[in-house]
Amino acid sequence: MPDSDDNLHLEIGHVLFIDIVGYSRLLIEEQKERLNQLTEIVLATAPVREATDEQLVRLPTGDGMALVFHHSAEEPARCALEIAEAL
């Protein structure tokens, strides 16, 4: 094994992808409003509120977002259920 592999650090991420259906057909103001509503709902979920910066990466995708949880495989599912209940 080459010496460079000694410093290799691997992590597992559990991902939740969220997409707003019909986003591109909305007016620009409606797009902003829907994205803001989604962001508020996501930020209010327990898995997102309870996660530290090291445990969660939030990535905007234009018409939604990706949430990468590093500490638990159950957190994306928990988050998805809370989002579905809020909608």
Plain-language structure description:
This protein has 87 residues and is of the alpha+beta class. It is 39% helix and 20% strand. The radius of gyration is 16 Å and the shape is globular. The protein starts with 13 loop residues before the first strand and ends with a helix.
Summarize the structure.
With 87 residues, the protein is an alpha+beta fold. The protein is 39% helix and 20% strand.
Q: How do the strands and helices of this protein lay out in sequence?
A:
Layout: E1 14-19, H1 28-44, H2 46-50, E2 56-60, E3 64-69, H3 75-86
Antiparallel strand pairs: 1-3, 2-3
User: How many E-type strands?
Assistant: 3
Approximately what portion of the residues adopt beta-strand conformation?
Answer: 15-25%
Structural category is: alpha+beta
- Biggest sheet, open or closed, and with what strands and sense? 3 strands, antiparallel
Note the gap between the termini.
Answer: 51 Å
In the sheet with the most strands, the strands line up as 1-3-2
Q: What is the chain-wise order of helices and strands? A: EHHEEH
Enumerate the spans where pLDDT stays under 50 for 5 or more consecutive residues: none
CA gyration radius, whole angstroms: 16 Å
Domain count: 1
Mean pLDDT: 92
